[in-house]
Amino acid sequence: MTLSRRSMLLSLPVLLSGVLPVLTACSGRAVSQMPDLPFTELDGQARRLADLQGKVVVLNFWATSCSTCVKEMPRLVETHTRFKAQGLETLAVAMSYDPPAYVMQFAQTRQLPFRVAIDHDGGLARAFGDVQLTPTTLVIDRKGQIVKRYVGEPDFAALDDLITRLLGQPPA
Fold this sequence. Notes:
The chain starts with a helix and ends with a helix. The chain has helices at about 5-25, 65-85, 100-110, 125, 155-170, and strands spanning about 40, 45-50, 55-60, 90-95, 115-120, 135-140, 145-150. The chain is α/β, with parallel strands linked by helices. Strands 5-4-3-6-7 form a 5-stranded mixed sheet. A two-stranded antiparallel ribbon has the order 1-2. Mean pLDDT is about 85; it is low at about 1-30. It has a single domain, classed as Glutaredoxin.
């Protein structure tokens, strides 16, 4: 029995709805705690993720070649600016395939007010569940627990509510 082209096209959304969750689930292992790894900021400053412990952190994996990443960056800047005085840390991690010169130019021309690092060897992306899709944004509480993972552009109203709630909790 052969399916017509039309029936195959009509069944594609049903097929994808079953396959995409499986692919998403297989894309990396679940990570619930922020690992302690070294990273280097664009200014050359050597840091460790443990330096962020005790703070609420928005960790954004992005790339200059990702149109959604570029589109959401002003909203990340707004979020960082709104909450930084209350203790929010933001770390934008450029993917390993992103040319360092492009990342530097992007960060400078847009005057990004938060930490920016390049994941040169892909170690940070692997440590956070093998992040491959950009943007991927993680929200991490003061205890280092990953409380939310957004793949794609976050719902910024929900993100703001979550950050407000986390910042209202006492430090660990």
